[in-house]
Amino acid sequence: MTKLALPLLAALMLVRPAQAADVPDPSAVTLVFGGDIMLAETVGERIAQGIDPFADVAPFLQTADATIANLECVVATTGTPMEGKPFTFRADPRVLPVLAKHFPIVSLANNHTGDFGHEAFIEQLDRLKQQGIAYFGGGRNCAEARTPHIIELKGLRIALLGYCDYHPREFEAGSNWPGTAWAVGPQIEADIKAARTLYHADLVIPFMHWGLQYVPENKSQRKLAHLMIRAGADAVIGSHPHVTQAVEYYRGKLIIYSLGNFVFNGFDEGPSRAGWLARLRLNKQGLMSWDTAPYHITDDGIPHLAKDVESPAGDAKKRIR
Q1: Can you state the angle between helices 219-231 and 185-197, rounded to 10 degrees?
Q2: How far from chain centre, in Å, is Cα 283?
Q3: What is the pLDDT of residues 188-242, one digit of tens each?
Q4: Inter-residue contact 139 to 148 (CB < 8 Å)
Q5: CA angle centred on 114, ends 110 and 115, rounded to 5°
Q6: How many CB atoms lie within 10 A of CB 164?
C-alpha cells in the first residue's frame, strides 16, 4: 500500500491547477468533485448581494462533463434548529440558482443537512427538484437515501452513492422518515453491488462524509474505504474534516480521503481555508487519470484558485510515493 499524506500547511500556499491531459478516448467522461459547500451565513449574504462564490473556480469546473459536491446545509425556510447542536446551517432558497449553475449534482449525506428537522429537509428535497438539482445520499426514506444517482454520458453509466459517518445519527433516514444514508459497512457493500446489478452501472463511486475534524485520515476511514473498494467501488471520494487528507491507491483504485472545505465561512487562516477540486477522467475500464486544483478560501468563505504549488495527480497505473 502506498500513499501520499500531504502536509496541511502546504494547502495554504498558492497553487496552479494541473492542466487536463489529452484524452484520446472519445468515450471518456470527466467528473469534478468539490468538498463541503455551506451557503448560509456570510456566503449566503454575498449571494444576496449578487456575488457568485464559484466564479473564480468556474473555469476549472467547466472542464468537466459533470460536477458533484457535498451540500453542507439545509436550503429551506421552515423548521427549527436542532436543540443543543453548536452550529446549525440553513440557507435561503435564493442560493439555489447559483448552486445549480455550477453543481447540478449534490450529496446530502452530511451532519448539517438535518439541522432544522424533517420539515426543512423535505422542503429542501422539493426545492432541489424544482431547481433541477439532482441529489443522492439523502431522501424521504432510507430506500431513497441509499439509491444511487446515475450519471449517463457517452454511453457510460456512473453510480454515485453518498454516506455520512459523523454524528448526529439522528439525521439518518428510516423506513418511513426522511434523512441521510448512514455509513453501515454491510449496507454499503450491498448498495455497491446493487448499483451494478439493478442499476446497470459501469462504474461506482461512493462520496463519503467521514473522519475526525482537523486531523489526518484515521484507521476507521481506511478500513471503510478498503471495504468499499473490495466490494467493487472504482474510486472513493471524501470530505468533512475541514482539512485535506491523504490520497491513496488501494488495489489499484483511487481514494481521496478529504477534499477539505470548499465554499465555507467561519474559519481562521490556516489549513481549513484550503482545499482541492478533484478531476477524474474515466471510461468503462475505470479511472484513466486524475488531477486536482487547490484553492484558498477568503474571509467570506469564497474559494480562489491558487497559482504556484503542486497538487496531487496521477494516472490509472501510477502509484503515489
Answers
A1: 30
A2: 21
A3: 999 999 999 999 999 999 999 999 999 987 899 999 999 999 999 999 999 999 9
A4: no
A5: 110
A6: 30
- Reduced to 3 states (helix: H, G, I; strand: E, B; else coil), residue 261 is strand
**Closest by alpha carbon to 263, among 10, 67, 18?**
67
- CA–CA distances in Å: residue 249 to residues 120, 263, 266: 39, 27, 33
Closest-CA residue to 234 (of 179, 304, 282): 282
Strand partners for 209: 164, 239
Q: What share of the chain is helix, strand, coil (3-state, %, to 5)?
A: 25, 30, 45
Dig out the grid coordinates for 99 from the structure.
Answer: 448552486
Handedness of CA 101, 279, 293, 6 (dihedral sign): positive
Rounded distance between C-alpha atoms, residue 164 and residue 210, angstroms: 6
Instruction: Report residue 303: phi and psi, to 5°.
Output: -80, 145
Closest CA to 8 of 302, 267, 229, 252: 267
Specify the CATH number for 2-315; select among 3.10.310.40, 3.60.21.10, 3.20.20.190, 3.30.1490.20.
3.60.21.10
118: nearest Cα among 64, 74, 59: 74
d(CA 203, CA 311): 25
The residue ranges of every structural domain in the chain are 2-315
Instruction: Give the integer Cα–Cα distance in Å for 170 and 122.
Output: 15
Q: What is the pLDDT of residues 97-126, one digit of tens each?
A: 999 999 999 999 999 999 999 999 999 999
Which residues in the chain show pLDDT less than 50? 1-23, 317-321
Question: Are 236 and 209 in contact, with CB atoms under 8 Å apart?
Answer: no
Maximum CA pair distance of the chain? 54
Please give the DSSP secondary-structure letter assigned to residue 26: T
How, if at all, do strands 29-37 and 274-283 pair? antiparallel
